[in-house]
């Protein structure tokens, strides 16, 4: 079986933009990634709609935003851009049911909503400025790092700068309303969140604290409360680390988090109530693993190391969650996003 992969990344050094490769699930090997969309600056996060449209973080001159590309032809076709003054966003996601695209801008503090046009292009529908700061030097201002859907169809945003997780209702006119804020411990530095596939539980990663909090989620209120908090690094690790991506297996039995600094992926067993037990560390065989993804079969996990320009493919044992390296040093220039 062949699975297609897209890599997003920086274009500050040798990166050419969006790359593509194939995973052969029979041989457990990834082909050498090749440039796929080179006409774009800094495509650091990607999201694909059910209609075959790729939405890509982009920077164009003094503006940043999202570019829409149709993937239905032989070559990607730029449909349009949705841009605003300032740096590019850190995250993009798609609401297929409502034909919306959400983005979170770490640098400007804005959460943006774009309506998907009939051809797949974008038109700005709403933008909300999140304000505030936290106690750490990295929290000198508001820094939204995530904007995606809750299981019940709200928008949930994660703000590293203000130590908050905020849910919004999405109105019929595609506007955000009725914010409900959850506050982490000061300095937690929340980055990303993922929901359990069947339990009313979410897992919030703190980049600055190198911790994961297990949160009880109330769909009635759109609110969170803490059930458990655990570390993503060994107790004797004293050098710098920043927790990054978080993923959960389709069966909800195992959670994974990448560590930039410790250069590892930690796995956790998830019990019947959603709480976590440390399940061991695996090296990423490179430097600064910002993102990773589990493939559609659930049998593989693919990580990219930003600073060493490499990717690592693992076999994933669905019975115990363990990762076994299958291929290292896959050349991924400035890779920071993995999309199957």
TrEMBL record:
Q: Where is the composition biased (Basic and acidic residues)?
A: 133-146
What single Pfam family name could you report for this chain, choosing any that match? Answer: Lactonase
* InterPro entries assigned: Cycloisomerase_2, Haem_d1_sf, Lactonase_7-beta_prop, WD40/YVTN_repeat-like_dom_sf
Region: Disordered, residue numbers: 124-148
Question: Where is the signal peptide, in residue numbers?
Answer: none
Q: Which family, according to UniProt?
A: Belongs to the cycloisomerase 2 family.
**Protein name as catalogued:** 6-phosphogluconolactonase
């Amino acid at each position: 079986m062949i699975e297609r992969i897209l890599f997003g990344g920086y274009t500050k050094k040798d990166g050419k933009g969006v790359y593509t490769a194939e995973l052969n699930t029979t041989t457990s090997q990834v082909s050498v990634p090749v440039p796929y969309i080179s006409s774009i600056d800094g495509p650091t996060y990607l999201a694909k709609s059910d209609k075959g449209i790729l939405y890509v973080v982009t920077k164009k001159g003094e503006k940043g935003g999202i570019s829409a590309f149709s993937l239905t032809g032989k070559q990607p076709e730029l449909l349009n851009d949705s841009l605003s003054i300032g740096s590019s966003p850190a995250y993009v996601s798609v609401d297929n049911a409502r034909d919306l695209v959400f983005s979170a801008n770490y640098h400007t503090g804005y959460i943006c909503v774009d309506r998907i046009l009939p051809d797949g292009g974008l038109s700005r529908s709403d933008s909300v400025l999140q304000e505030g700061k936290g106690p750490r030097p990295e929290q000198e201002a508001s820094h939204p790092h995530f904007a995606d859907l809750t299981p019940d169809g709200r928008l949930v945003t994660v703000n590293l700068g203000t130590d908050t997780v905020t849910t919004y209702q999405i109105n019929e006119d595609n506007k955000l309303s009725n914010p409900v804020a959850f506050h982490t411990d000061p300095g937690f530095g929340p980055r990303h969140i993922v929901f359990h596939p069947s339990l009313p539980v979410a897992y919030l990663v703190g980049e600055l604290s190198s911790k994961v909090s297990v949160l009880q989620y109330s769909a009635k209120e759109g609110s969170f409360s803490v059930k458990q908090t655990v570390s993503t690094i060994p107790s004797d690790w004293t050098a710098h680390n920043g927790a990054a991506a978080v993923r959960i297996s389709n069966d909800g039995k195992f959670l994974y988090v990448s560590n930039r600094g410790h250069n590892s992926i930690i796995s956790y067993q998830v019990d019947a109530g959603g709480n976590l037990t440390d399940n061991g560390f695996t090296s990423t065989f490179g430097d600064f693993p910002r993102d990773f993804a589990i493939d559609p079969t659930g049998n593989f996990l693919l990580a990219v190391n930003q600073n060493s320009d490499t990717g690592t493919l693992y076999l994933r044992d669905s019975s115990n969650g363990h990762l076994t390296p299958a291929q290292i040093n896959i050349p991924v220039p400035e890779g920071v996003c993995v999309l199957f």
